[in-house]
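Form 7-S
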Amino acid sequence: MIEKRDLQSTCWQEVPKIRPVRAAKRNGFTLIELLVVIAVIALLVGILLPSLNRARALAKRASCGVNLSGIGKAAVLFTTSNDGIGPAVEIWNNGAAVSCTTSIGNNVNWGTNVRAHRANSINLWLLRCREYAAPKLFICLSTTDTADTSPVDSTATGFRPSDFASAENVSYGYQVPYAAQNTDSFGPGIFSLASPSALAIAADSSPYMNTDGSWNTSATITDWDSSPANAQIEAGNSPNHSGDGQNVLFADGHVAWSATADVGVSRDNIYTGAPSGEDTSGAGTLNVPRSTSDSMIAP
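Output:
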């Protein structure tokens, strides 16, 4: 006979606990998870990269404007010490330039060689060789141009008195100071302390020049009064910023960004020798500023 206490102990005997089987610990991601992560990263790069490139371009544009402002300050310093006349060097013999140490004179002859417009860069070189401006100041970071570090000491090896070594050593154009072809005088557009404050005297390089600095005779001048298409707008702006526009230095010393080139006095096209923005005379001619309020930036 089973006693009562034995029955109770049998009924209430503790049942062994069953422990759940744990999965083995994983290290890393599965292939699908990796593919998802890669896809998300690629998507983010695709979204952010254009913005980053745009930000980089804007930073370079701003840097180019700062350099142009520095050129303007150097030009003003030169002008105040030169009887109020801006940088302007004598030219003769179809565009050959005199030494940068030669004083300003009234003996200018464009001749018939288109290099005369390329030689306009000697007026910026004047600021360099007389040490008003450092070589890097003439370089826009939006371009592939490099600084001309030629010595300015006439006794040093490699001294070159006339101009930048190549068109790739200067990213900016300057107001053409000369008169009409085959005349021996500076023109009315020469920069001076008496120039109109709204006169554009320097800017990112002209869209109407070849890479060697000569005129692009096949270029079509953009007519800014005819609501030009995007392609015409880009063609009429400086190539420094892929046709988006240009930094412009004015006679009063301030620098401004403009999406179009008709920002001179009375909407003058700053890259052509014409009195107003609507004049679209061809780039194949040796144009020069027509008046004291007419800008013509070259090269």
